[in-house]
Amino acid sequence: MLMRWIHWIVSFLGTLKVLMLLKNLNLIVIWKKKTLHGSREFDVLSWWKLNGIKYPIMSEIARDILAIPISTVASESSFSTSGRIVSAQRNTIDGVGDIDVDDDNDNEVNELLQKNQTRRRRRRENPAMGRRPARCYRQIKNKPYPKSRYCRGVPDPKIRIYDVGMKKKGVDEFPFCVHLVSWEKENVSSEALEAARIACNKYMAKFAGKDAFHLRVRVHPFHVLRINKMLSCAGADRLQTGMRGAFGKPQGTCARVAIGQVLLSVRCKDSNSHHAQEALRRAKFKFPGRQKIIVSRKWGFTKFSRADYVRWKQENRIMPDGVNAKLLGCHGRLANRQPGRAFLEAVSST
Fold it and tell me: What is the pTM of this model?
C-alpha cells in the first residue's frame, strides 16, 4: 500500500512539472481553429530533434503540433509516412500576431489522412495471403488435371507471352539456336516460366539488342494446382478438424515437364551465340531442379541440320515457312512439278 501511495505522489509531481514547463513555454496550440496564439517565438522542430528523447511527454506534444509520426527518418521539409506536411505555421509559434492557416492546406491534409485510414482499414479487413510455395507441387504425382467444364474457376497463368523478340524474322536471319533442357521430371509453375522469360529477355535485349534474337517458351502451364485452405488462427483445431471435403480449389497452374524436354529456346546470329548461352544460364536460376544448356546442331528452329540446310538452299529445295522451312521432296509425278523442281536422288553407279 505504501509503494502505491509513493507511485501516485511521484506521478502527480511529474504532472505538475510538465504543467509548469507548459506554462513557461506558453505552448498553447489549438488544432481546430485557424489561428495559433503564443507569447514568444519557439522553434518546435529544433527542440523536438534535440530534446525529444529526454522529455517523452513534451516530445508527444511536439509531435502533435508538427504532425510527425512516431518513427520517421524523413527530411525537415516533409514527413511522408503519415501523409502530413510540416509547414512554417506549425513549426514556429510566434507571439507577434495571429498566423492564418490556409484552408486549402488543411483540406489536403485531411484528404491524405482519410486515404491512409481507408487503406489501413482495408488491410486489416482483407489481409493478402501469400501463395503456397512451389516446392509443395514440384513432384508429379497424379494424373493431368487441365481446365475444363468440370474444373472451373482456374486463375489465369502468370505467363501470357511465349514468343519474345523478333518473332517475325525469317528462317534465314537467325541460324544459331540454343536450348534450355530440363533434366528432371517435375512440375514447373507459371510464375517460374514468367520469371525465366523476363530474365532471359532482359539480358538479350541489353547485350545483344532487342532486334537481334527470338526467344520462345516451349512449355505451357495447362496442369491445374489445387489447395485445401485450412484455418491457421489460434484455436483452429476447435473450428476445423478432419479431412471432410478435402478436394481443394484451383490455386494456380503449372507445366508437367519430362526429362530431356526443352523449356526455352533462343535463335540468333552466330555473333551473339555467347550472349544467348549466358541468358539461358541466368534463366536456369528461376527453375527448380536441374537443367542443361545444349547448343543445337539444327538451323534455327527447323528440324534440318546446318549442313543439310545450306546444301538444300543452294539446290533450291528449301521453301521458307515463317520461322521454319519446308523441304521439297523427290516423290510424285514429274508432270505435276514446277519447272526447275524436278529433284532426283543421286543414283550410285554399280
Answer: 0.61
